[in-house]
Hints:
This protein has about 350 residues and is an all-alpha fold. Helices cover about 85% and strands about 0% of the residues.
Amino acid sequence: MVDVKYVLGILGQIIFYYACSISITFFNKWSFSSFHFPLVVSFFHMTIVSHVIWLYRTATKGVSGKDEITWNLFFRRVCPTAIAAAVDIGLSNWSFMYITVSMYTMCKSTTIIFILISAIIFKLEKPKILSAVVIALIAFGLFLFTYKSTSFHLWGFILVMAASAVGGLRWVLAQILLQRDSLGLTSTLEFVYYVEPVMAVSILPLALAIEGSDMALSPDFILADRHESLYVLFVVAVGASLALFLTFSEYLLLSNTSSITVSICGIIKEILILGLASTVGKDRLSPINMIGLVVCLSGISLHVYLKYKSNKLANDIERQGLLDSEDSTGSYSNEQVTGRK
């Protein structure tokens, strides 16, 4: 019998995830189109999220009983993950100044290619022919999507593709931290607590080097009155809140479903964003671009299906192993009882 309350709860979490993810995509595009300091804003986003998570963890530490991680683990595992995440987010936000939401969404969908490559390098995945097919489909779909696109901007394209490449490394490093119990960071909120401050510190030098002088001479700061300053702070605070809600929504959905469910929801989310961008944002897509979209999403869908089959096979093998263990234990006990008789 279907648990209606459970199903409605999951649907609510999916809607919450969609609302946060789609909102922050369009909000960042809007804000960075007028406020040309995406790296500085990203620093403030990370700083605000860090403080919120710190306050939450401080309040709940007595209940959860979490211990601090070692410095060795912090520098060897947490810092590389955080630096990769900071570069990914920083370059992604920077690209919004040059490309449309449609172009950004399609290019970021290629992160899965770099996740596969990074997973193979770190020996989390084995090279497979079907993995190569997935990479080829997504790459060819991206080529068709950007072919003679009216919204194509070379520098924006380079930024978002660099973000995708670093993002692939980021998620593989994060997977290692979250899935190895021996590292002690299996909780996503605990993971964010350690990673987010390093992300803020990592992106600050990049923000100051690229945007520092322009921001210092910008009329938005030199000639800004109190109302304008409050408006800028309000926009930054809204962006940081959306980033925090997105992190929480991803954690909430993942903790109550599975990575496969999150992946499927991600595909649907990208379709929704592209649909909204072509209607609300007036992004123009040619028939070739649309074919590229279909080919790219086909590659992503194939990857999700392969991961589902792989996880199902692993679970079946583990379940069968437990059953065999129980059977052998039971027969051993019977033999012991028979011998005693």
